[in-house]
Amino acid sequence: MPTNTTAHASRLVLTVGLCFMVALMEGLDLQAAGIAAVGMEKAFALDKMQMGWIFSAGIFGLLPGALVGGMLSDRYGRKRILLGSVILFGLFSLATALAWNFSTLLLARLLTGVGLGAALPNLIALTSEAAGARFRGRAVSLMYCGVPMGAGMAAALGFFGLTQAWQTIFWVGGVVPLLLVLPLMRWLPESRDFERASERVPLRSLLAANNAAATLLLWLCYFFTLLVVYMLINWLPMLLVGQGFSASEAAGVMFVLQFGAVSGTLLLGALMDKLSPLVMSLLIYTGMLLSLLALGFASSLNAMLFSGFIAGLFATGGQSVLYALAPLFYRTEIRATGVGTAVAVGRIGAISGPLLAGKMLAMGTGTLGVMSASAPGILLAGIAVFWLMKKRNNDDGAASDASAAIIQTPGKP
């Protein structure tokens, strides 16, 4: 028994550690366009709508990447598809740095997004399956900390003036993932759950009677939560500059936002198994709504830094709770497909966020108008998360009751 426990712990540490490193680079690249935005805008003489398309191109690539990456993972293995996705987003991050006009920049960001999108469902599936039911939520939250930490690294590069050439952030986002490929090939273990799976389940089973409610609720909360998160990631630096803050001050706010995101990911992941569904959903989405309003009203740098921290705490921290929730509702044979599909629907929200913000700013609504427009979606997402957590608790309770009945009934197999 001790030997088996040690081996399991070793596999879990390797899996979480290596997946964390990939998540770190995913977070850096997701934030990179926002940090490089001012430089790109000047270099290519882009207007606000063109910048919106640049932001959305990378996010749009995440959609087919997540959907196809999840389905391929359930067929060919988590590790193999993760390796391919890391190579893809590393190469096209380099291509972003080498782009020479608006069209090539758009294409490079699109294909980078495909690689990033394919990586995430595999990171979630590998981590959740290595951890097992007991540690799944905490392990996924710990791995996902890499995303806001990577985004914080990108913001720090901008804050300390290390990205005066806008291409720098994309060179980092391309070279480092390619350097990770060999360690992943050598040390990342394949999921044992996947290796033991005996059948392949079609995509339509996501909407079968036993999965439909969870699937639809996941899609709803992923859509609206990611709409808010990606609106913040992409537009907040330029909104701050437009309000009179310097580029380095804007990068500082983004750094604090990502620090809040790391704190929120760890804190909310730990609270996920301890608070009631109602308290948890109220905590995340009320905090998210209030922080967005605070960002709209803040006028001083200190107030903006505080508001940014709280926004990261609840917006990205709440997103990590969704990633820990999704694997719980699907069995191994369709887990990566279910997670990947939910992530893909979330990416539709993520695409909509920057475009919605760009349109509203063009109409003259200002920062407060952009933030306030997110309120109805946040309310719907909060209700969906409440029902998901309540459903999970009920399912766990029913399973416990069934187990107890079997134990207490003599002769039951």
General description of the model:
- The chain has one domain: Up-down Bundle (Growth Hormone, Chain: A).
- The chain contains 14 helices and no strands.
- Helix 8 packs parallel to helix 12 (332-362).
- Mean pLDDT is 82; it is low at 399-413.
- The protein has 413 residues and is mainly α.
- The longest helix has 43 residues, at 2-44.
Task: Note the run of SSEs as H and E.
Answer: HHHHHHHHHHHHHH
What is the level-2 CATH architecture name? Up-down Bundle
- Rg, rounded, reads 21 Å
Number of domains: 1
Q: Shape, please?
A: globular
Oligomerization status of the protein chains: single chain
Strand proportion: under 5%
Helix share of residues? over 70%
Counting DSSP E segments of at least 2 residues, the number of strands comes to 0
User: Would you tell me which CATH topology applies?
Assistant: Growth Hormone, Chain: A
Q: Please give the alpha-carbon distance between the first and last residues.
A: 25 Å
What is the average per-residue confidence, as pLDDT, rounded to a whole number?
A: 82
Which parts are unreliable, with pLDDT below 50 for 5 consecutive residues or more? 399-413
CATH class: Mainly Alpha
Total DSSP helices: 14
Largest sheet: none
CATH superfamily: MFS general substrate transporter like domains
Helix/strand structural class = mainly alpha
